């Protein structure tokens, strides 16, 4: 005959395992939701879909560009016209989503192509976007991108060290 303590311990362990599996599944579901929202944003960039930007970017959204420019949502949206975009594609790779409670952090590599006069230009940018779940829905609250140098504009190893370790941070 099994002891009541062993039965209680077994039941408790089973409950913890099931809770852990359910929690892991919930995080995976949230990460998939964020991936879908990231794709919706990429599609909106190409289509010039202002309604999607307005829905997915929080009122307090901030945008830090690869050139160091920092803008609020309204500043970033200024001048954009519904249905108009210079972008012909906006692909991403190496995308990682980390969810922690009501916050998600997305990192990846964007590979956009855009019209520049009569030619198509392209680039690669490492990005970080922060999402917050507010009132039951996810919205982007911050974005930062950094241009990935191409072989023609890549820094020398010494320049790269200076960029990663500016003089003010050295001993």
As a percent range, the share of strand residues is 35-45%
Q: How many helices does DSSP assign? A: 4
Q: Report the sheet with the most strands, covering strand number, pairing sense and barrel closure.
A: 7 strands, mixed
Judged by helices, strands and strand pairing, the structural class is alpha+beta
User: Secondary-structure element sequence?
Assistant: HHEEHEEEEEH
Q: How much helicity do the residues have?
A: 25-40%
Give the total of beta strands. Answer: 7
Radius of gyration: 22 Å
Mean pLDDT across all residues, rounded?
A: 85
Distance between the termini: 69 Å
Low-confidence stretches: 166-171
Shape: elongated
How would you characterize this protein structure?
The protein is of the alpha+beta class and 171 residues long. It is built from four helices and seven strands; from the N terminus they run ααββαβββββα. It has helices at residues 4-47, 50-56, 73-77, 157-164, and strands at residues 57-64, 70-72, 87-100, 103-116, 119-122, 125-134, 137-147. Strands 1, 2, 3, 4, 5, 6 and 7 form a seven-stranded mixed β-sheet that branches. It is elongated and about 80 Å long. The model is unreliable at 166-171 (pLDDT under 50).
